[in-house]
Design brief:
163 residues, Arc Repressor Mutant, subunit A, 8 helices, Tscrpt_reg_Rrf2, Rrf2 family protein, mainly alpha
């Protein structure tokens, strides 16, 4: 199992949006340049975030994106689901139905595969954990793990619109 790098870029960029005043937005060009990636790639990610109601798109020359909800109301799982989709990681193919005992009718299988149930339960535990971590939590955590200079430099970069 592996999430795409889009989840990581989304989380980083969403943290940058936290400090933007509610009347302003941050342009996709600035976000992409700051992260060192293409605008096209980041636009695709932000299109998904917008569709999921995590960000709002602001049209116009000074347009861009801003958070659609409070950072306390946006979980890591919200971002993962927006970028990756809602389907389960484990896709049961009912391979037991191809087994020897099932072909011969000697064994009456339970309606739910035990392997599938365990995998889905594990995924639910992971989802619960990711739901417990919010953008607000991440923002506070970054204050502890990054230097004050880096945090202030990042905020300054986006507050000036990188002009």
């Amino acid at each position: 199992m592996q999430y795409s790098v889009g989840v990581e870029y989304a989380l980083h960029c969403l943290v940058y949006l936290i400090d933007a005043p509610s009347t302003e937005s941050i342009g996709i060009k600035d976000l992409a340049e700051f992260q060192g990636l293409s605008e096209t790639f980041l636009s695709k990610i932000f299109s998904k975030l917008s569709k999921a109601g995590i960000v709002n798109s602001v049209p116009g020359v000074k347009g861009g994106y801003r958070l659609a909800k409070s950072p306390e109301d946006i979980s890591f799982w919200d971002v993962v689901e927006a970028v990756e989709g809602a389907k389960p990681i484990f896709q049961c193919k009912n391979i037991k139905d191809n087994g020897y005992l099932y072909k011969e009718g000697c064994c009456s299988a339970p309606s739910s595969c035990t392997i599938n149930l365990v995998m889905l339960s594990g995924e639910e535990k992971m989802r619960d954990y990711l739901r417990s971590k919010t953008l607000s939590w991440l923002n506070e955590e970054l204050n502890h793990v990054l230097s004050k200079q880096i945090r202030e430099g990042t905020r300054e970069y986006f507050s000036k619109g990188n002009q």
